[in-house]
Amino acid sequence: MIKGAIFDVDGTLVDSMDMWNHCGVNYLKSRGITPEPGLSEKLATFPINVTGEYLREHYHIDRSAAEITKDLNDTALDFYMNRAERKPYVTELLDALSEAGVLMITATASDSGVVRRLLRRLGLEKYFSGIYSCEELGWDKMHPECYLKCLTILDTEKETTWVFEDMLHAAHSAHLAGLRVGGMYDRPSAANEEIMRSFCDRYLKTEEDFGNFIKEEVEI
């Protein structure tokens, strides 16, 4: 029976990956800089602070990494506060987990303070005992240690702890860490659905998928 849950935010709880996929590219273009091919895919694996460092060093921008990170966070905050919406069926999932007494935290590559404001606006903050950034956890999501750190925070067992992620690299790291993995469908990463299904314990895409997960993994 599930005792603990670790949730990603962007693309898992909130429909926001399109914004993030264009954020770094648009930032460079706004400064008259041509982005390298495949930049969005590369930045998708970075925590926000590492993105700031990468853009500064790789494109020789005359701003500190912290200033660039703040610029990106300001863009995200505007989107979060005005346009971002919950993903379908996540409220029902969170309600079921909460009613079952499951301990829940978030692990996000974004800034935790910005994410907290987003979750508060959407009425989702109440479900989580902690909102942690990769920077705070000390590991990015390319490393299984990110999820092992979350496991330590929850103080639950691997066998009863689920990680919910939409991105391939993150879901695979959680799998390598030995936790149960719920792959979350998101249109921007839909090309990876088949490979994610190959190692995720469950893949949640349709209303039926969410309903079955609640019945078979939570309400038992």
Automatic annotation (TrEMBL):
Stretches of the chain forming a coiled coil according to its record: none
Matches recorded under SUPFAM superfamilies: HAD-like
Annotated family: Belongs to the HAD-like hydrolase superfamily. CbbY/CbbZ/Gph/YieH family.
Organism: Candidatus Colimorpha enterica
EC numbers on record: 3.1.3.18
Enzyme class at the top of the EC tree: hydrolase
InterPro entries for the chain: HAD-like_hydrolase_sf, HAD-like_sf, HAD_2, HAD_sf, PGP-like_dom2
Keyword set, alphabetical order: Hydrolase
Record's catalysed reaction(s): 2-phosphoglycolate + H2O = glycolate + phosphate
Keyword Hydrolase: yes
Protein name as annotated: phosphoglycolate phosphatase
Superkingdom of origin organism: Bacteria
Involved pathway(s): Organic acid metabolism; glycolate biosynthesis; glycolate from 2-phosphoglycolate: step 1/1
Single GO MF annotation: phosphoglycolate phosphatase activity
